[in-house]
Each structure stands twice: as C-alpha cells, then as structure tokens.
Amino acid sequence: VIFFNQAALIAAQLKKITGLTMLPEQSILRSHQQQKQVGLGRSGRLKNLQNQFHINHQFKPYLAGLSGNLILIDDVITTGATLVNLAKILRSHSSISGLIAITYCYTKPCR
Which of 23, 37, 66, 98 is in Cβ range 3.0-4.6 Å of 94 for a Cys bridge? Predict the structure, then answer.
C-alpha cells in the first residue's frame, strides 16, 4: 500500500510556483484519531478532532517566529473541522495575523 499526502503535494506545487515558504511537514503532528470522520456531522467531527493536533516540540521556536498571513491547505473540506482545529493551534503558537484556507474538493457533511 502506498500512502501519500495530497495536501503536501498541492503545497509543494504552490511553493514551486510562488516561492512561498512551506512549513516542514512534521511541524504539526496528529494524535491517534478516536473515530473515523466518515459519517459524522459537523459537531461530531469537531469533537472528534478536538485536541488531536499538537506542535512538534522541535518546531516550536520556528512557529513562534511566524507572523503575517499563513495558508492552510487541505485536500477535502467537509465541515472544516480539520482547518478549524489547525487554525486554533497555529494561532496559539505563533503571531500570525490571518489564515487563508485552500482546498480542492468540497463534500456535503452527513447529518
């Protein structure tokens, strides 16, 4: 089985085109997910992802020095739970002033 991170592939191309700096892929880590997101509604997804992301301690000084706008890239957005939780943790560990989210697929959430 081959696994790949679609959002990282999109970010790499965006970096190549624009010259923007990209956070190291392992700067934000995800804890073990309690339950699959598939089939959950917005509140279930938000609860499921609560406290699932944390900053890799090696990158805390790097993130603390960030300011300005940051672009978050996610391959699929259903309820925005992943982006909301990533935004919270990034804002709490940096001095960024704004977040821009880019996704390439939207799906309707389950009810």
Answer: 66
Structure tokens at 24: 């190291």
d(CA 106, CA 35): 21
Summarised one tens digit per residue, pLDDT across range 24-65 is 778 888 876 666 767 677 777 777 777 778 888 998 888 888
pLDDT at 33: 62
| Contacts of residue 77, Cβ cutoff 8 Å, sequence gap at least 6 | 83, 101, 103, 105, 106, 107
**Which one-letter amino acid corresponds to residue 4?**
F
Nearest alpha-carbon partner for 73 in 106, 99, 102, 96: 102
Instruction: Please report, for residues 32, 37, 76, 97, the alpha-carbon distance to residue 40 in angstroms, rounded to integers and kept in the order given.
Output: 17, 6, 15, 31
Structure tokens at 59: 């990158």
The whole-angstrom distance between residue 10's C-alpha and the CA centroid of its chain comes to: 13
Q: How many residues does the chain have?
A: 111
Res. 21: pLDDT tops 60: yes
